[in-house]
């Protein structure tokens, strides 16, 4: 039996290829190819799976992106917050596609996105993921997905509006289709969009809004739509995991060292140039700022008298003025001050007085390793997102100018339980500062006057100020979204009867 078995084995071996031992390189090549194949299958599975069970695949891909991230040394790893429970997608017949191009900085675009989602919901449209401004002063090349979590944006709003990443091919310009392009009228109400915008879709299935700042009124909008604006702002627009991780780390570093003030020191080159505010600048600096203003043709106001602008409270406080106000408000020199801003005009020399009064001044560039910030360099909106997170989490938030970031942070802090935001009355403060510096007011008189004038400007619950026919002068919806701060139909009990500011 053994002989026959061996001969049979020999005959079989004649028909087999000789066995060649595998080299280590071949083994690694097979492993790499197998890994690529597995990942390709997973990506395809996710793409198909979104059609059948989007919640599962949303969580799966979110966890994968988090696990495959490599934290830097000493990084405080905070997992991204869980998504809100998904509701069923709203079933409606779409009247067309709404394409929007946002203009301005991060927070101006953020508010515009909230408004455009609301308009799409009102008119039963399909919204295309918004395009972000790349041509403004900051020239930030970031796309929507570089700043916000696109999947979360789509999923968290599916109960309200249908959102797609891009237009169907048949509506693409390279295929000869030309959408109707226009800017909607600023501060418009529901009637305008229903009566003047909706009929356009009967002829053009794609409408492109090429400007979106302040295109929806602050007031006179139905309560459900006001709440939708809040839902987009507070829950739908979530920063990318990379931005959130670094933002959480900044907050953690600051909180470990005690309470901190986020000072939005809007003393930056663009702010000074376009506002015409040159108080404290040299003649050479004032000329440079004026040349910059003239270099941008879209900025209509060219000749500006800085002294008049400042006396009207229309200029940001200088770093020196900010130091005086912080001291008058009662902050001592041991308070930790986080500068939430870009590059201060004039550099470190303009911060000398502020640092002398508050030695514990820090910026994100001082708290983080340069390698951690490298991916955000030359992306002003992504850097602003980090400052936004820190400002929202701070013990006290103080903006030196009431721009878009100041207003949206104020609104977020109200939403988070009316966290203290000291909203400076710059017109009053400039008057007090000048009186103190010319010897008219002693320090104690100056400090008392500053504190007294801001007792009711701490971000307390109150009604928005409404000014008929003057939407630019009334309170901004996103700074005080009162409809979203209490659940009852009438908010008077929560906001106080004495806080109504109808004008």
UniProtKB/TrEMBL annotation:
The question of whether Transmembrane helix is a record keyword is answered with yes
Recorded topology in the membrane: Single-pass type II membrane protein
Any one GO cellular component localisation term in the record: chloroplast
Which Pfam family would be a valid example here? Answer: O-FucT
| Record's subcellular location | Membrane
Q: What is its main location?
A: membrane
Q: Which family does it belong to?
A: Belongs to the glycosyltransferase GT106 family.
* This protein's name: O-fucosyltransferase family protein
């Amino acid at each position: 039996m053994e002989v026959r078995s061996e001969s049979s084995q020999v005959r079989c071996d004649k028909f087999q290829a000789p066995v060649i031992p595998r080299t280590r390189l071949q083994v690694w090549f097979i492993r790499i190819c197998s890994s690529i194949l597995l990942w390709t299958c997973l990506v395809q599975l996710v793409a198909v799976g979104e059609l059948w069970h989007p919640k599962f695949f949303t969580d799966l891909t979110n966890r994968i992106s988090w696990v495959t991230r490599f934290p830097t040394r000493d990084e405080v790893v905070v997992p991204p917050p869980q998504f809100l429970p998904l509701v069923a997608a709203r079933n409606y017949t779409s009247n067309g596609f709404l394409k929007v191009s946002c203009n301005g900085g991060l927070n101006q675009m953020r508010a515009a996105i909230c408004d455009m989602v609301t308009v799409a919901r009102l008119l039963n449209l399909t919204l295309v993921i918004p395009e972000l401004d790349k041509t403004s002063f900051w020239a930030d090349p970031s796309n929507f997905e570089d700043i916000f979590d696109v999947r979360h944006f789509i999923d968290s709003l599916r109960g309200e509006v249908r959102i797609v990443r891009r237009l169907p091919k048949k509506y693409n310009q390279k295929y000869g289709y030309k959408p109707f392009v226009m800017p909607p009228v600023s501060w418009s109400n529901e009637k305008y969009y229903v009566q003047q915008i909706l009929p356009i879709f009967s002829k053009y299935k794609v409408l492109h809004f090429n400007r979106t700042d302040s295109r929806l009124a602050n007031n006179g909008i139905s309560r459900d739509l006001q709440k939708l604006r809040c839902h987009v702002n507070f829950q739908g627009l979530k920063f990318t995991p990379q931005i959130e991780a670094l933002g959480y780390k900044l907050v953690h570093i600051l909180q470990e060292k005690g309470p901190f003030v986020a000072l939005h020191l809007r003393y930056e080159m663009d702010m000074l140039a376009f506002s015409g505010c040159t108080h404290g600048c040299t003649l050479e600096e004032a000329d440079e700022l004026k040349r910059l203003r003239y270099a941008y043709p879209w900025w209509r106001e060219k000749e500006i008298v800085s002294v008049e602008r400042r006396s009207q409270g229309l200029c940001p406080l200088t770093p020196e003025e900010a130091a005086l106000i912080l001291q008058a408000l009662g902050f001592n020199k041991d308070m930790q001050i986080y500068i939430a801003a870009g590059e201060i005009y004039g550099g470190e020399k303009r911060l000398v007085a502020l640092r002398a009064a508050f030695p514990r001044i820090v910026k994100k560039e001082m708290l983080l390793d340069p390698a951690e910030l490298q991916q955000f360099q030359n992306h002003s909106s992504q850097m602003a997102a980090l400052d936004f997170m820190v400002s929202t989490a701070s013990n006290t938030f103080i903006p030196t100018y009431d721009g878009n970031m100041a207003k949206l942070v104020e609104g977020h802090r109200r939403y988070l339980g009316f966290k203290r935001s000291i909203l400076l009355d710059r017109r009053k403060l400039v008057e007090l500062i000048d009186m103190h510096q010319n010897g008219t007011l002693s320090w104690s008189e100056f400090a008392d006057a500053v504190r007294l004038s801001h007792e009711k400007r701490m971000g307390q619950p109150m009604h928005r100020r409404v000014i008929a026919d003057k939407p630019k002068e009334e309170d901004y919806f996103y700074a005080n979204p009162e409809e979203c701060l209490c659940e009852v139909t009438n908010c008077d009990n929560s906001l106080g009867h004495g806080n109504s500011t109808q004008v």
